[in-house]
């Protein structure tokens, strides 16, 4: 791919009317920042549900260059109004806690399954021709049969969140194939970086580990720490959305978006504590509620997406952790609850 | 497998407290008939929604040997009361029209996806140790990559009904793996036989074709009629449920339940008209709403289920059609709407 091809997807967004559901959240707000720099007309939708990842501080530096509309994706009529005239929808709103999904499966269903249908129905009726890029998840694969996991691996979710995200993804593909809605899904692996929720530990472990390291606390790693994961720095994840949103080649398909350096929890936490210069690691037994939905080692093969749009992760894990630590050192007060 | 092994699963049901959701419907009522003959304590749950397949006539000959409770699986509290003390639940209640699911995706979602979660939550809370056999569908595979389709084929639904049935199935497997609910899914191919809904043509084509043949009308076959399907006679399908409900080997897994004689629509309708001695066949262009969700040829490989429990279909297609035609000839008035 030439340098010109490589930048064409960025040119695509100049003056483009885009919408980001979950746009005050972690990935959504970083994506919004890239989009305003590319000259896009950015509409951010977010419910700001207190326990979720939306945070107005996430866009404080670009607040005068985006439009923010507080709304819940579960309201189909509202989505119908908001989607009108949009050319690309980055559909990132979701309930992302696996543990919460097991305690309250219905809320997870309403947001990750039913609301997705509402968004797509809104597009079908009010916004034909729109392209939707869905934030899928590697969670749909469950405990893998082989590593690295590619898109030929069976979908076999190990928790409620995975089931509902799978259904939400299937809806997108179906609306692409049957109705006038172009859609694809990016199955994200563990994403990390600035602006991630770290006020509680129920939305993935990486952000929580970073907070503990910065607060010079003990990081608890379950089991022997030999479980492997791959990690994507948030700028790389946001770049994946940009590329998929500009590419006809992605319509109707699913793509893994994973990291380049699979690493054990043991080595990850060691690297993190070393980079932070604070915190420590302790290995503890698995809590039963987490063990029941654990999937063992996982890392994904993103070569299909690389072939389709030329994407690959460019920020290495150590560098990504450095940037993330620096961000939270500066802005920690905006990401933790005020002392009660 | 010895003759003794072969009958052990039938002995299992003597005095067994079973529940059949959708038990007034097509497969459910035929299963109920087998179960009462085996000495089971049968509780039938059905909503009798007018457009769906439930029909009190379906159990008129065994009405004094079963308990019927009219209820909707969408009501979790009701399901919690009814599930209490049941040892095996045959979970067949569903919205089964692919075409309706595209017109009204929310109702399909409520019944095939959300209600399944309700049933499983009811089991988890009120009925630990129960075994649930879920009526899955080959529809979850969508348009197949290869034939015959086995369980290693990707789940890639081609219509809303397929998405929601896939999610409902995933919930069952998840509750098996994580909670104290044993569950498996039988992915049924096209089932036919006595007691199927034939009052409208939105629940599969085979019952409708049988009605048209009996009424000496024209059967419209879409396209050139070369699309292949496999068919399972309802007694064979009911036997599959009996075997799965009695077998530890099925827990947590999915199994295709397909027919032994894949056949083109052309040959099927020819055989049907010949056996009925009435009706005719006409080849017509695909209607657009059906073409959009058509999956081409499909037939399934059921050898995994055969290995697990010894099941195989025993009623051939011609014999099955004969029995079905004879049934409707005798009872047609109970299966068509009264003239308005």
Could you give the topology of this structure?
The structure is a homodimer of 340-residue chains.
Chain A: H1 3-11, E1 17-21, H2 26-37, E2 41-46, E3 67-70, H3 76-83, E4 88-91, H4 98-103, H5 105-126, E5 131-137, H6 160-178, E6 182-188, E7 190-192, H7 205-214, E8 218-222, E9 228-229, E10 231-233, H8 234-245, E11 254-257, E12 263-264, H9 265-276, E13 280-284, H10 288-291, H11 303-309, H12 317-331
Parallel strand pairs in A: 1-2, 1-4, 2-3, 4-5, 5-6, 6-11, 7-10, 8-13
Antiparallel strand pairs in A: 9-12
Helix pairs in contact in A: 2-8, 3-5, 5-6, 7-9, 9-12
Account of the protein in words:
- The structure is a homodimer of 340-residue chains.
- By secondary structure, the first copy, chain A, is α/β, with parallel strands linked by helices.
- Chain A has a domain at 3-193 and 232-259 and 299-314: 3-Layer(aba) Sandwich (Rossmann fold).
- Chain A has twelve helices and 13 strands.
- The first copy, chain A, has helices at 3-11, 26-37, 76-83, 98-103, 105-126, 160-178, 205-214, 234-245, 265-276, 288-291, 303-309, 317-331; strands at 17-21, 41-46, 67-70, 88-91, 131-137, 182-188, 190-192, 218-222, 228-229, 231-233, 254-257, 263-264, 280-284.
- In chain A, the strands form four sheets. A seven-stranded parallel beta sheet of chain A has the order 3-2-1-4-5-6-11, with helices on both faces. The first copy, chain A, has a two-stranded parallel ribbon with strand order 7-10.
- In chain A, helix 6 (160-178) links the parallel strand 5 and strand 6 (182-188).
- The first copy, chain A, is globular.
- The relative contact order of chain A is 0.14.
- The model of chain A has no long low-confidence stretch (mean pLDDT 94).
- At the A-B interface, helix 5 and helix 6 of A face helix 5 and helix 6 of B.
């Amino acid at each position: 791919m030439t340098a010109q091809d490589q930048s064409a997807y960025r040119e695509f967004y100049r003056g483009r009317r885009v919408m980001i559901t979950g746009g005050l959240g972690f990935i959504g707000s970083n994506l919004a920042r890239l989009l305003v720099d590319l000259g896009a007309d950015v509409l951010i939708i977010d419910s700001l549900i207190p326990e979720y990842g939306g945070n107005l501080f996430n866009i404080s530096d670009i607040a005068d260059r985006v439009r923010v509309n507080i709304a819940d994706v579960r309201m189909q009529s509202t989505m119908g109004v908001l989607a009108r005239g949009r050319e690309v929808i980055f559909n990132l709103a979701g309930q992302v806690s696996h543990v919460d999904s097991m305690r309250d499966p219905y809320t997870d269903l309403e947001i990750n399954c039913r609301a997705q249908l509402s968004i797509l129905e809104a597009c079908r009726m009010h916004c034909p021709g729109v392209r939707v890029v869905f934030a899928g998840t590697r969670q749909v694969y469950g405990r893998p049969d082989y590593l690295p996991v590619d898109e030929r691996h069976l979908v076999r979710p190990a928790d409620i969140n995975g089931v509902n995200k799978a259904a939400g993804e299937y809806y997108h593909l179906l609306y692409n194939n049957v109705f006038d809605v172009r859609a694809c899904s990016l199955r994200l692996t563990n994403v990390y970086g600035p602006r991630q929720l770290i006020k509680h530990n129920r939305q993935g472990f990486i952000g929580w580990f970073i907070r503990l390291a910065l607060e010079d606390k003990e990081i608890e790693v379950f089991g022997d720490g030999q479980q492997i994961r791959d990690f994507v720095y948030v700028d790389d994840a946001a770049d994946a959305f940009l590329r998929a949103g500009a590419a006809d080649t992605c319509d109707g398909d699913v793509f893994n978006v994973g990291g380049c350096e699979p690493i054990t929890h043991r080595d990850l936490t060691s690297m993190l504590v070393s980079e932070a210069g604070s915190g420590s690691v302790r290995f503890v037994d698995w809590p039963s509620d987490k063990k029941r939905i654990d999937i063992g080692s996982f890392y994904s093969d993103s070569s299909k997406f690389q072939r389709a749009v030329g994407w690959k992760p460019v920020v290495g894990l150590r560098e990504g952790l450095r940037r993330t630590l620096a961000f939270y050192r500066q802005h920690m007060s905006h990401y933790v609850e005020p002392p009660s």
